[in-house]
Amino acid sequence: MLLSLDFLAIPLLIAAGLVFVSLLAGLFSVRLGFSFLVVFLIAGMLLGEDGPGGVAFKDFELAFWVGNVALAVILLDGGLRTQYRNFRTGLKPALWLATLGVVVTAALTGVAAHFLLGLSWPMALLLGAIVGSTDAAAVFALLKSSGVKLNERVAATLEIESGLNDPMAVYLTLALIGWVLLDAQNAGADMAWWWPLRDLALQFGWGAALGIGAGWAFALLLRRLTVWARPSGGVRALLLTSAGLSVFALTTWVGGSGFLAVYLFGVLVANRATQCVAPSLSAMDGFAWLAQASMFLLLGLLVTPSDALAALLPALGVVAVLMLLARPLSVWIILKPLRFDKREIAFISWVGLRGAVPIVLAIFPVMAGVEGAEIFISVALIVVMASLVLQGSTIPWSARRTGVVLPNHDDVALARQVYGDFEVPGNARMSDLCGFYGWPPVPDDHLDAAQWLTQALGRPPIEGDHANLGAAELSVRRMEDGEIVRVGIRLLRDPAAPDVEADPSD
């Protein structure tokens, strides 16, 4: 009797075929303006018990394991593509959005969940924490595939925020699960007030220390291996992935934030061993795609759409509060004092993408044995689908609408629209420009155009920044090594000047 290998062939055929078809459908969906992540999620649901596949999958532990590993790979890939120069403009706002912003968003969303879903305050705030953070997988993937070039401040803020806010969301979720369980046992008084602060310090302290330390050490090792062994790009990618997952697991084991650690590990390695990492980025991109595909397919298989339909209307109310009130208000509170303009605030508010993280976090209370925790998975599914369809598919449109898009080198029309019709060197004296164009004089005659623009902005300048002087708009047209080297000029109509009709003979 021959040994049958059906137990290997059939599941492998189904899994590989599903990934292949989903990838093809995802590539077509991008051309139509929809997120390919939606396709993976829907494919998993079609294979599940409510779809034609009819597979009843309720292995929360496996889904939790795969989701966390996939997120670690995605964050590692994102860290490897984050340059130190992005921290100049993006670190401070991203750090505040990833901490205080998540808390404000979670609190406001929790209030909506309390009144719309009828949940107790501990349960409602737990739901707010589950859906309160943006998703690294969605942000990295959709910004990359959107086809638009965002200005540095907006792109860096969104990417760094998505890499840093998972630790806060995980911490809030675990802390609120503890509150829910203690509340159910009427043992809330047994928890000391300083425990959550201690846990927060441990999470971020261990995550930062191990991520930075391991990144520094591995960058040194990788530079020496490149000289001694000359590994191929694929081998380097495997080294990076295995090392990053080891850092993630070790940090999680000692009580720190593995997500923070693996992201910082990627940032340190990429910037301290740039030439050594570069050949591995194409392979890392493939690993990140595989991680996203596996995670969304498995999470789609886990969720039950029929259960979500029962809570559809109140859950859509929670979605509306999250998208239109909680996220915009938290972004405005944080970014307005940092002198972001209203267009940048509007775009960052809208592109608060939710992806796999809320569904992964929704598994936490189910595994912890919280009574009624299935509602979290249903609401998280609705939030994710709404975010990917409404926000993910409108990134190019909203970027152009809010004016945060920078032109490509060959796009002359958009360059004139963004920078104006004229340009001068950054070291052109402002006194000369004011005299030539008739602008109001500047206080210091020794200022050049670059210096005046930097002072007028009151923040680190980026390409596309602009400031008005009289009847003119000066913009940062090109920068090199953090310095403004070319300044664009747009002449505006002087409100005091009489209207002049165009001569028909011209």
UniProtKB/TrEMBL annotation:
Pfam families (UniProt xref): CorC_HlyC, Na_H_Exchanger
Source species of the chain: Serpentinimonas raichei
GO biological process assignments: proton transmembrane transport
Record keywords, A-Z: Antiport, Cell membrane, Ion transport, Membrane, Transmembrane, Transmembrane helix, Transport
Main location: membrane
Domain Transporter-associated residues, every copy: 415-493
Protein name: NhaP-type Na+/H+ and K+/H+ antiporters with a unique C-terminal domain
Gene Ontology, cellular component aspect: plasma membrane
MF-aspect GO terms: antiporter activity; flavin adenine dinucleotide binding
SMART domains found in the cross-reference section: CorC_HlyC
Protein's cellular compartments: Cell membrane
Keyword field contains Transport: yes
Transmembrane annotation, as ranges: 12-42, 62-82, 94-117, 123-143, 164-182, 202-222, 286-303, 309-335, 347-367, 373-391
